[in-house]
Specification:
The protein is of the alpha+beta class. It contains 3 helices and 8 strands; from the N terminus they run αβββαβββαββ.
């Protein structure tokens, strides 16, 4: 078996061994004022009433890192020129008509999203 196949086989075995799911703790469920909410690690409530009405079990939900957990990159922190950027830098490119922008993966890595404008329209570039 080649190295690539071996790695895939180990990954599949690990998923089967864990049931394919992470072992993260489920979010606490709170029922108040006719709504069903899960509570994240910061204490913020997230309304899951509609999801429950569709048959989802709120105790099975897990929360992410929460609102405002990271700061988006914005145009004030994006260089307009490409001087000094190594040619080997990985970028995510966006284009529409004559307008084009490129966002370096290293800068997006710590922000996860860039709020920007392209051709006069607001865009969000995610990584």
């Amino acid at each position: 078996m080649g190295t690539g196949r071996f790695i895939i086989a180990v990954a599949v075995a690990a998923l089967i061994g864990t049931g394919g799911a992470s072992r993260a703790q489920a979010a606490p469920v709170v029922k108040e004022y006719g709504k069903v909410c899960i509570v994240d690690q910061r204490g913020e409530r997230w309304d899951v009433t509609q999801a429950q009405s569709l048959g989802f079990e709120p105790r099975g939900f897990q929360y992410g890192i929460g609102r405002n957990a990271f700061t988006p990159l914005d145009d004030s922190r994006v260089r307009k020129e490409n001087d000094g950027i190594p040619g080997s830098t990985r970028v995510i490119g966006v284009g529409e008509g004559p307008s084009h922008r490129a966002y370096s993966v290293p800068s997006l890595g710590s922000h996860e999203v860039a709020n920007s404008n392209l051709g006069g329209k607001p865009i969000a570039v995610g990584y």
